[in-house]
Amino acid sequence: MNKLRQIFQIIANSGNIIRNRDNFILIYQMGKVGSTSILLGLRHEIPLGKIRHTHFLSDKWLKEILPGAKMKHREQIDYGIDLQHQLNTTRKRLKIITLVREPVSRWYSNFFENADAITGKPFKEITKDDLINYLEIGDISFPEKWIRTEFNPFLGIDLLKSPFRKKDGFTIIEYPNFDLLCIKTEKLNNCYKRAFKEFLGIDFKQLPSANRSTDKSSHLKSLHESGKSLVPSFIDLDKVYESAYCHHFYSTEELKGFRENWDQTT
Predict the structure, then answer these.
(1) Are the CB atoms for 93 and 51 separated by under 8 Å?
(2) 0.90 exceeded by pTM
(3) Do residues 184 and 159 touch, judged by C-beta distance below 8 A?
(4) What is the helix (H) or strand (E) element at residue 133, kind and residue range?
(5) In whole angstroms, what is the distance from residue 169 CA to residue 257 CA?
(6) Phi, psi dihedrals of residue 79, rounded to the nearest 5°
(7) DSSP symbol at 161
(8) Are 255 and 241 in contact (CB under 8 A)?
(9) How many domains does the structure of the chain reveal?
C-alpha cells in the first residue's frame, strides 16, 4: 500500500520533479527556526528530488567547535563532512534555503527542545532552576554568530549585507554558484507559497506542522508558559534587538512588538 501511495505521489507531483531534476536543494540553517516543516513539505512536493538538510558545513564548526562541545555531535559531524563531498562533486544547480528567527524566541525554544541534553536529566525532572541556569549562561547572540562563523565563510558571502525584503518575509538572491532563498520564520506561514513558487517553481499545497517543543510533556508545557516571565530579567532585550542581525531582518515595528510581547510576560 505504501508503494502504491508513493507511485501516486510521484505522478501527482511529476511537474515539480521535472522542474527540479537539475537542482540540488539544500536546507542550510541554524537550529530551531522551523526547517523541519519545510523539509517534510519539500519531500512530499518533490519526491525523488535531491534534498538535503544540515546546520553545519564549515571546517571551523565540523573540525574545531563541534568536536569540543559539551553535547555529542559525532553523527552531525560525519554527515556534514559527507555532505561537503556531495556538494563538491554534484553537477546540479545548488538551491539553498535558509531561515532566520527572532533570537530570544529561538533561544527559549531551544531549551525546551533539548532540555534533556542540556541538563543531563530526563524531561520529567527538568525544573525552573534548570531554566534559570540556561538563561544565565546562554548565548543569545547565536543566530548572528552562526551566520558570521558558519554560513558566510562556507558560502563566501555576507548575508547581513545582502538585500532582504522585510515586508515580504523572504528574499531570493542569485549568486554565480548557487541560488539562495532566505525566509523569516515569523512570516513563513504567510509567504511560503509565494516564496517556493518563485524559487523552485512549485505550488506548495500545505506546509506540514512539525512537533513543537512544548509537546514533550505536560510538565514542560507548564514550565514553558510560566518561564516566559523570567526572560526579561536575564536577557538584555534592548541589546538583542539593537543588534545588526535584528535590524537587518526585522522592521522597527516588528522589533517593538517582540519587545512588548516579552515585557507583557512579567
Answers:
(1) no
(2) yes
(3) no
(4) helix 128-137
(5) 16
(6) -65, -45
(7) G
(8) yes
(9) 1
d(CA 106, CA 33): 7
Q: Which three cell numbers stand for residue 254?
A: 516588528
Question: Domain span at residue 19?
Answer: 2-263
Element (H, E) at 28: strand 23-28
Q: How many residues does this entry show for the chain?
A: 266
What pLDDT is attached to residue 214? 44
Burial of 248 (0-12, 13-18, 19+ CB in 10 A): middle
Instruction: Tell me the average pLDDT of the chain.
Output: 92
Instruction: From residue 154, give the alpha-carbon distance in Å to each of 55, 121, 167.
Output: 12, 35, 28
3-state class of 48 per DSSP? coil
Do residues 51 and 39 make contact, with C-beta atoms less than 8 angstroms apart? Answer: yes
Residues 6+ positions from 39 with CB-CB distance below 8 Å: 27, 51, 53
Round to whole Å and give the CA distance between 241 and 245: 8
pLDDT digits (tens, 9 = 90+) for 138-193: 789 999 999 999 999 999 999 999 999 999 999 999 999 999 999 999 999 999 99
Joined grid coordinates for residue 206: 500545505
Cβ–Cβ < 8 Å for 206, 45: no
Cell digits of residue 58: 564549515
State the CATH number of the domain containing residue 243.
Answer: 3.40.50
Residue 185 to residue 177: CA distance in whole angstroms: 25
Q: Write down the pLDDT at residue 216.
A: 61
